[in-house]
Request: fold
Amino acid sequence: MPDGSFFQFWDDQTQYRMSYHVAKKHPLASDANPGTSDKPWKTIGRAAEMLQPGEKVIVHEGRYREQVMPRRGGNGPDSMIAYEAAPGEEVIISGAEAWVPRCLPSAGWHTGNAGIWMADLPGELFGGYNPFLARNIYEEVVSYSNFAEMARYMLHRGAVFVDGLPLKQVYRFAELTGQDGAFWVEEPGLRLHFRLPGRCGSHAGGLRDYRSIAGLRPTRLRAGVHPRQRLHLRARGRLPTRAPACHGQHASRPPLDHREQPYSVG
Reply:
């Protein structure tokens, strides 16, 4: 753990007295429901609010774009709270937000190169915390001797994925000229300029090859987990740990103080 203590793992010995269901694809799904199989909850977050020690939730297939913050934990190996993927169903918890922007040719910055697009980020997209507003470090640092090394610390905390693959963030707009699959954040963090991977080229038709700019997510977590690591939820029991069928990606909240060392889970 960040304070140097060991993370305590339990062997699940709980006899669960109650099971709830989350199924976002169910036609009657609602967080106002009782969480039964025929009237399931819509979000895992609702389950995280409601579950008590000795209870579990069965999560059905779907991509859940939400931050899961359990309100309480178990009391011991024989009184745990379980999050379980329904047998044979794939459950993905993703911190990425789907983004289908109106893309325009990049304007206001001159490189003489076509194929660079821009799009605005709606303020309500991130639920209170926009990672594109913040840099990897809090202070402005000026370095004339090793700019390449310092630039990565000055990048913004947001990340962009297209068709499941990340775009590379660059520090200066001019760096977009020489590479596809990259993006630049215009201050104060409400507009992105980008070149899409290979097949887009310099014509507008290429942009339509993409169903959407697939997702946005912060590059750091409040818990300090490594920004590129995927968290896995066990099919039964505690989280996070490794397991088949049910896995998660980072959710968007501010990080710990940047002086604290990140740690890896799983």
